[in-house]
Fold this sequence. Notes:
alpha+beta; six-stranded mixed barrel; 21 strands
Amino acid sequence: MSVFAVLLGVCFAFGSLIFISTLDRAFSAVQSGTVSDVVVRQAGVRSGQGEVPEPLVPRVAAVPGVAQVDGQVLENGVYLLGKDGQPLGAANVPGSLTNFHNGRATGGLPGLVVLEGRAPTRAGEVAIDPKAAAEGGYRIGDQVTIVTSGETPVITKTLVGLVTYGAGGSPGATLVTMDTAAARQLSANGEGYQQLWVVAAPGISPATLRDRISAVLPAGTEALTGAQAADLDASTINKALRFVTAALWVFAATSLLAGGFLIANTFAMLVNQRARELALLRAIGASKAQVRRMMLLEALVVGVVGAAAGLVCGYLLARLIRGLFRRFGYDLSATPLVVPWTGAVIATALGVAVTLFAAYLPARRASAMSPAAALRDDPTPVERSLWLRAGAGIGVLALAALILAPPVRERFSTNLLLAAAIVLVLIGVTVLTPVLARPVIRTGSWLGGHVWGQVARLAGTNALRNPRRTGATATALMMGTALVAMMGVFAGSARTSVDDLIADTFRSDYIVSAAYGAPFSPKIADNIQKVPGVQWVARVRQGGAYLTAGGQQSAITLAATEPTPFLHLLDLHFESGTPADWHGATVVVSHRFAQTHRLRVGQSVAIDFLGKPYSVRVAGIMTQSPLAVVDVITTMEQFNAMGGGGEERLVFVSRDPSANAASVRAGLIAALGGNTVVSVQSQAQFAAQQREPIDQVLRVIYALLGLAIVIAFLGIVNTLVLAVAERRREIGLLRAVAMTRGQVRRMVRLEALAICLLGSVVGLGTGILLGWLLQRSQADRGVNVLDIPWLQLAAALLIAVVAGVVAAWWPARRAAALPPLAAIATE
Length: 827
């Protein structure tokens, strides 16, 4: 059991390291293959944004050391549709559109490569990547349907070739290539290029060529080496996928920590059972150090065997995760799994270190065994008082409360303090679990006594015979249920807060949006305005920007809309300022954002958008932004003046009260023009879509509960098996005085039930407290409603109880099968 616990921890740790390394290589290789030796683009923008004027091409081409320059059109808001009308590729990854060119990539890698057919040369032609073609069932000569965010929402072109970048395509993303003129028609800018693809002449380094090109570029344009551009783009992707590795590391930490308690419990029980043997070793001359080393060597064997098996399982886990990613559209099969040997050493060291640390205290107790104990009938060491433990646990909890006090929060980061407080609370409750065992199990024993009589009382007495052992056994389940309850409370609060925000703010009848918040064509909004029965239409557009106030610059997502229809369809709940002041070069900001950046109505702030600074005035402060991840909303007039893109992100629509609801909805769906990426939703449907990311987090949390139950299952089986062996004579005496086999089995099962109740009750109580703290810390970020999911928590408690009863099945059968006379005669 101890070996398996170490195996799980090392498995998740090593699997995480393998997957992180594989992701890094996959995206780094892809990004390196999709950039040239030098990239020229508008300063301060990401790939696919901004504009480079066409006259700059000959100027760059004239720089010494330039072998080739191609203007590159990039558009990241396109989707390829299969023959069934559904988007191809990963569900939340839009495809990329570019014009075909033959420039090689950085490092001598091939750029765009035609694998089959030919490159597109005319307006009605397209070439796509082979994975998308296979998924969509397309062959050369077929008509391919493409969803764009340009003026034409849905277009159809003839497939003339299969193309990819020489280093492979981006996992999950589809690739669409056209001739330059056709690509420009679909681009957000429509003129110029998004960047220049510059190839260095032989013998010229990218860094040297970058410096030469920078000298001839106009203000607002920058030159980057391909490696610099690739690192910027790859880091954005890796940040988006960081949640996977974070989840794996949480599993690894939970496994190792819970496994540590299991190991400590096992060695403590072995010391008790071998007390006479250890005392005899001391009596015949073994020193304290020798006994301690003997126990630690046993632990070392457990750690090494468990870690070795964990490395193998970690590799298999990484393969499994890669397979799961492939099923969701992120195909990493072109990149072999990267096995970092430093990671293997780290994971092994973690497993062995946890094992040795967990076994140290039992080994120390073993070495302290008195030689005279070998002469006593019962050499088992006497348990120490729990008062010292109680004081230590209360002290740790007091420290957690202290760091959350207002004077401390004012000086340090709230998130950092909250994380520290959560860790301290878990440590404090872990220390206090043996102390809490007495009131919890005595209450359960008293209640159980009314159902199962003396057997339940006897089971409670057995569980409390060694509170430290019982507490350590319950700790794995306690920590798992605490984390699950904490995130369950927070996720439930977030879900309810989203629902309340939409119900309190949205007055529109319909919300039109693309999957996963992708941009979509403004032509759809134009069509919606023409639908009979539509009363108000409010468009929302977005773009990345930087806001400077009080000398501090912050990255923001800037939204834009027409104030008049927007305010008819959404209630912003102005705390200060008035809607009448929101026009022209102004913004409204959320209360949280205003408080963080110390903004007030009438104050001027600077917004850096697409590399250019603009001055705007704060016209109002709203209680909470109704738009996800948006704290600053400007007017459409100002957004257009700054060069913002024409793609829509959301369209809010209200229906004339006299119009037929079914007819209006049908008209709105028809206005989409067959675009299956964009949907028309009611408020309830839109709220459900906003809750989906929260539900995904909950599924990960439930997986964590499953892991905690597995480890707790092992711990309970381990503890009960050793306890049955330890109490062999006692069980024989009970059988001799007429306790039936069924009663013995029930006693052991109820003992397991007591352990599970202890872990579950303490864990759920702790988790609810931590969930409340987490919710309060995010109240100003929109999670302002506390909602405790009692039904889910009750289900978690029930699952834990059932797991405990199942875990007791084998130990209970072993206990009931003991022959009474043989058990009594045991020495």
